[in-house]
Amino acid sequence: MSWTTLCQVDELIEGNGKYVDIDGKPLAVFLHNGSPFVLDNLCPHAGGELADGWVEEDGGHACAICPLHAWPFRLDTGEMPDGGAAVRTYPARIDGAFVQADLSLKL
Q: In degrees rounded to 5, what are phi and psi of residue 82?
């Protein structure tokens, strides 16, 4: 895996999204229960920015909620709980003070 540093952990607020742009690739970074999650930023429905959203439980899954129309996307898979649309997710980790993601296969 090739890890890319996205931001510092202390820049994240538990349950809220943060926008990060890596080489022109817009990403949404979330911290949920102390773990980082990274998804493509744009909702496939109407282009809402997931980074402006928040985390809620939906169907027993932690989901990033699109702020435009409240579409939920699972943090772990990027899929909607009902099996509708999906966004890409990326492996993520905390390394010291930084949030990193493996973007190598999906940029």
A: -90, 5
**pLDDT tens digit at each of 107 positions of the chain:** 699 999 999 999 999 999 999 999 999 999 999 999 999 999 999 889 999 999 999 889 999 999 999 999 999 999 999 888 999 999 999 999 999 999 986 54
How many CB atoms lie under 10 A from the CB of residue 13? 11
Using DSSP, state whether 97 is helix, strand or coil: coil
**What's the Cα-to-Cα distance from 81 to each of 32, 33, 42, 47, 77, rounded to whole Å?**
17, 19, 17, 19, 10
Torsion of CA 64, 66, 72, 76, to 10 degrees: -30
SS3 9: helix
**Amino acid letter for position 45:** H
Structure tokens belonging to residue 5 = 């540093």
Residue 30's CB: how many other CB atoms inside 10 A? 27
